[in-house]
Amino acid sequence: MVGHILVCPSHRLACIATMLVSWSSGRLKERTWHMTISTLVAVAGFIVATSVENTAGRYAGMIIFCNGTYGVNSLMLGRCGSVCGQMREKKSAGPGTYPANLAPVRRASINSMDRLVRLPREMLDMVVDHLDDDSVDRLTQTSRTLQNLVGSRTWHKVEVACTNLSDQEKLIWRLEACVTGKQKKMLTENGAYPEHDFVDNDDIPCCASYVRQYIINGSDDQALYEEPLINLYGRDTIPVEMVQVTGLVHLCIYNVECARFGEDNGVTLRMLGGSATTLRSLELFHYHEQCSEEVEVQMDGIDFQLTALEFLIMCRFCLREAKAMLQVVDFPSLAELHIYQPPDELSAFFVTLQARFGAVQQPTLRLLELDLNATSDQAMFDAQRRWLRSFTTLKSLRLDRWAPQAPALDFSRALPSIVGHQGLRKLIFSHRDRERDSEGGPQFYIPVLKTASVLTLALNLPELRWLEFAPDRDDLFETGRALSGLTKLEFMRCRHQEDGDFNYVFKMLTKIIQGFLREMQPDETWEGKYSLRLVQAEEEGVQYDVASRLPEAWGRKRIITNPTTKKAVRMRMARDVDPAFVEDSDPVWIDKVGRDWRVADE
Fold first, then answer.
1. Which of 59-73, 166-180, 426-440 has maximum average pLDDT?
2. Which of 356, 381, 358 is nearest to 370 (CA)?
3. Through-space distance between the first and last CA atoms of the chain, rounded to whole angstroms
4. Strands 534-536 and 491-494, sheet pairing
């Protein structure tokens, strides 16, 4: 009924305009200018309808557009009818045009097959998160279906900061004031927003069930203030209102002393009970005082597990916190795990992980990042490498500062733990900081891989596409020959440099590439045998394209030739780097995005 009321006036006016244009054209025996003016009117209506934001302006533009299009269409049909021959097929097709012209008058509604309406909840959240407030308002006006889907998600984009300790218990209530009147009215009409006249400590505000991202910051990092939802706390403040949020998807805690899940005897952890089935990402960063020395943790009343958790970061955690996380997190079911700078006394934590992963037939963990923190503890080193051997599902592995500092610790013992993951696509040996040795030179806490170690990796990791490592400087040519077995390798980063020699990077990479060329047969080409297209040194700005041919417009290039096989390849300083080779990009993440889109297509 509403469609008839809104659409019929425009069609009635268009019919009147059509008759006037047709009458004038026939009376004056002129068609060209009548068709031109009608077309200009239609164009003007289209511009008005697409440029204004209010409903009245768009409705007026629609009426103007209809008047112009109907006028020019009638003249065109009349012209064709008078000039073209009258065939029986043409006459029989005439009645079929009536239902098509009447269809817009019958009803006006959104297409039920609209992809935006059919998107899964997570994908729609991603779309809304990247829209500004005006775009979200326009989107909610498209249809009542999108109103119901998008309206209740407006709290995801709310920014709020709590600096007054006396207001912390009312923090979630303060979100209500951040919602615009239009949003409140829309949600009230849909029955999704009950009015609140007072604040009761036993009452949970409506918006609490819609908050998805929650960041608790106890540090002075200004960059954190730009996140979607931030609450500021002191180090000794517990975020008591977190218990009111029941649908969290992402939780991040920076440097909050009492938010350690073991320090407060489970008080903070217990608040996650309402989000146990929705929390997918959890980040715990602690850059301050050590956790309590007491070993036992009071976990009474915590009988839930974070069943939806896929992404976990644990940085500088203590034994108490490790025990708490082991109780609520099923580590083998994670997709991505980052562990930074665990103290040496946490070797027991990795022993427990080894037992849990060994008991699962097929863990889902695909991406792992371990920061050994340049340990000199034999127990910690052995516990981590044995844990890595307890499963074989990794696609991406990053080992930070994994060069043991004690002479008794031999890194080659860790190679079997790595090569067991034969589906590995990305392997990185890196350091997060650069220190100086006694002579003032750079000291990197990463292992230098001998040729034998590189050959072991090449023989056992056939799917490897990304490799960052420190090669043996005294045997670069043989290292290249060993790497030639990685035919799917696309990106390689050699973590060496010399401050006083600007050509050192090119000379180092030249020797390695010559090793690749040595393994080529007479009838083989670089692109036919290898996938390597980009090589890089320690500094991210020094990157080289590698190819058999490089266009002259790409700039200066150098030719590398192997004297034995006479095979050659060209290298050029890279300017435009493929986004796929940006630092920290990850094939696992690409797989996750592709999986989400496939779900959307279904």
1. 59-73
2. 381
3. 34
4. parallel
d(CA 32, CA 186): 49
3-class secondary structure for 172-217?
HHHHHHHCCHHHHHHHHHCCCCCCCCCCCCCCCCHHHHCCCEEEEE
Average pLDDT rounded to a whole number, residues 22-40: 78
Give the angle subtended at the CA of 597 by the CAs of 272 and 119, to the nearest 5°.
70
The C-alpha angle 269, 274, 277, rounded to 5 degrees, equals 100
Q: What does the alpha-carbon distance between residue 221 and residue 224 come to, in Å, rounded to a whole number? A: 6
Q: What is the pLDDT of residues 172-220, one digit of tens each?
A: 555 555 555 555 666 566 665 556 554 555 566 666 666 677 776 665 5
Number of domains making up the chain: 3
**Rounded-to-integer distance, Cα 268 and Cα 233, Å:** 14
Q: Can you tell me which residue has the tokens 């103290």? A: 343
Whether residues 48 and 164 fall in one domain: no
Q: Which residues of 586-599 are buried (b: 16+ CB within 10 A; e: fewer)?
A: bbbeeebeeeeeee
Interior/surface letters 343-366, b for 16+ CB within 10 angstroms, e for the rest: beebbebbeebbebbeebeebebb
60 and 147 in a single domain? The answer is no
Mark whether 128 and 170 lie in a shared domain: yes
**Pairing status of strand 557-561 against strand 568-573:** antiparallel
pTM as predicted: 0.65
Is residue 488 within 8 Å of residue 463, measured between CB atoms? yes
| Range of 114-118, 121-125, 180-184, 383-387 with top mean pLDDT | 383-387
Distance CA 9, CA 32 (A): 28
Q: How far apart are CA 525 and CA 392, in angstroms?
A: 34
Is residue 216 within 8 A of residue 259, CB to CB? The reply is: yes
Same domain, 192 and 98: no
Q: Is 161 helix (H, G, I), strand (E, B) or coil?
A: coil
The count of C-alpha atoms lying within 13 angstroms of the C-alpha of 410, restricted to the half-sphere facing its C-beta, is 6
Q: Say if residues 142 and 114 touch (Cβ distance below 8 Å).
A: no
Q: Are residues 130 and 96 in the same domain?
A: no
Are 508 and 545 a contacting pair, CB within 8 Å?
no
Residue 456 shares a structural domain with residue 594: yes
End-of-domain residue from the set 167, 197, 227: 197
Query: Checking phi first, is residue 37 left (phi over 0); if not, alpha (psi -120 to 50) or beta?
Result: alpha
Check: CB of residue 285 under 8 Å from CB of residue 309: no
Residue-wise over 199-227: b if at least 16 C-beta within 10 A, else e?
eeeeebbbbbebbbbbbbbbbeeeebeee
Q: Strand 311-315 relative to strand 426-430: parallel, antiparallel, unpaired? A: unpaired
Q: Which residues contact 502 (CB under 8 A, 6 or more apart)?
A: none
> In Å, how far are 212, 241, 460, 542 from 202, measured between CA atoms?
22, 11, 59, 60
Asked if residue 323 lies in contact with residue 353, where contact means CB atoms within 8 angstroms, the answer is no
Domain extent at residue 175? 118-197
